[in-house]
Amino acid sequence: xxxxxxxxxxxxxxxxxxxxxxxxxxxxxxxxxxxxxxxxxxxxxxxxxxxxxxxxxxxxxxxxxxxxxxxxxxxxxxxxxxxxxxxxxxxxxxxxxxxxxxxxxxxxxxxxxxxxxxxxxxxxxxxxxxxxxxxxxxxxxxxxxxxxxxxxxxxxxxxxxxxxxxxxxxxxxxxxxxxxxxxxxxxxxxxxxxxxxxxxxxxxxxxxxxxxxxxxxxxxxxxxxxxxxxxxxxxxxxxxxxxxxxxxxxxxxxxxxxxxxxxxxxxxxxxxxxxxxxxxxxxxxxxxxxxxxxxxxxxxxxxxxxxxxxxxxx
Amino acid sequence: xxxxxxxxxxxxxxxxxxxxxxxxxxxxxxxxxxxxxxxxxxxxxxxxxxxxxxxxxxxxxxxxxxxxxxxxxxxxxxxxxxxxxxxxxxxxxxxxxxxxxxxxxxxxxxxxxxxxxxxxxxxxxxxxxxxxxxxxxxxxxxxxxxxxxxxxxxxxxxxxxxxxxxxxxxxxxxxxxxxxxxxxxxxxxxxxxxxxxxxxxxxxxxxxxxxxxxxxxxxxxxxxxxxxxxxxxxxxxxxxxxxxxxxxxxxxxxxxxxxxxxxxxxxxxxxxxxxxxxxxxxxxxxxxxxxxxxxxxxxxxxxxxxxxxxxxxxxxxxxxxxxxxxxxxxxxxxxxxxxxxxxxxxxxxxxxxxxxxxxxxxxxxxx
Lengths: 314, 367
Known about the structure:
By secondary structure, chain A is an all-alpha fold.
């Protein structure tokens, strides 16, 4: 048994962390739930002394918004496209990195660089790469002159330039750019985790496989992937959680309008929806949307957990 | 399948970039392993025994020298084409596969005409499992098995391809003492039943002596002696081999040969012919002492340990190279524990003379 004096000391040492957690994590969570269930809650009016009745009106309104469905669709689409793609790419790159000896460190650093770079800055670079610059930029009379490096490459190989992100671009083109950008941005962390996992696999398994004359493909599918499965599961789950919070990447490429000039907010996401509600001072609606997002992430993570229980070994 | 090692040498480049010291792990190993025998590679850690095993397996390439399986030169052959079975020190069972899948794995890798049908694969897997008596555990995962059972699975996996040569790296080092005794008998039995030429590596001399047909004692990459266990024990070629084999270890004394007499300190313990006068190292096996009230070797008695069948007498002598002298004598002999001294006569065939500098054996004849 720890005596009382010791217990006091323990609480004292824990108190800075506990106070911070209470104020900045626990209270906001409780407050979010509270605001979500108060009809039409606005904090400015609340400060003025207004009272709000309890109800689920905020949730009903959120779901009835047509923009909410757009946001949900964009978010889910980007998740479904980017998480598997980035995981598979990261796995292949990690295995390749792990199997080479010279320059491994240098390449590791290069692959990790995007992780330490600001995502808005990267977004602007990507926007420039996919850009089309011309006269009357952003109007219907725009004369298309390609200046983005991607279109230059396409033209070099004899293809037609594609309007990726500018005025009049298609939704498919927009999503393609976003997918490439998000996958590229997500790779470093995944490569790092998977490479770490690979390096902790006992080399004897590979020696044993060699003695048994296992082909490289079979080593990959029957040994590497199963032994790496806990790491893969981790990467997929965090990938989905991160994917559902996608927002800054879209702002990075399309700006605050979150879409091409002729169709603003076309690429808005769940988090974007919450920000919009906040900027309109509608805390009740923002809270309700946040809780819905939380619910979706919870369900997806539970499904992930269920699947990995069946698939992940050990 | 006999295995021939010809001038086998392995040099590892220096790890430290500043010093250019290369590490010679195995130096000029020559040996013809007869067909169907169980060979123990024995030596302290760093003696090159595992490197030798891995060169036979093909996982490591020799720096120079050749390896033959039968008449085939396999030196340049890659591991999977050598037809070997290898049991790793930590077994290296695939943790995500069941015992059955682990044993089937090598068979499923076979291609073309070598690839057996599904039924035959299963049959062979069960046959191998029966041989090592784990056929009841086929659906378990390795983590659900004891160390000894994992060991058997590893052996079954190595055997299922019917290898030409079976290699075992420290097969018993991860088992507790009781399992070790049991498993080494098991390895002996499996080897006898299959008749596969088997090489195993160990640092435990008792293990090597008890089950090997032939032991190879190594030190710092150089083979010290090759022979049947009893032969090597009874006639070590140098002081290292004499010290390495036997528990309790051999007693070593600083001594000399003068006028045909072997002296330990002042005590002339043996008369020999054809050994010139010189300073020598003398090794006497613990069982080489006879309690003898008139014996020439006078030691200070420090302790008597009764072990039932035998009595172990611990004593000291100023010429001893070790702090203690340990002798083992039949318990029928009564030891006077109150006495301060104990006197021995020496069994001549349990006493070995070694050159003081080279530590090579000096052979003698008893007068």
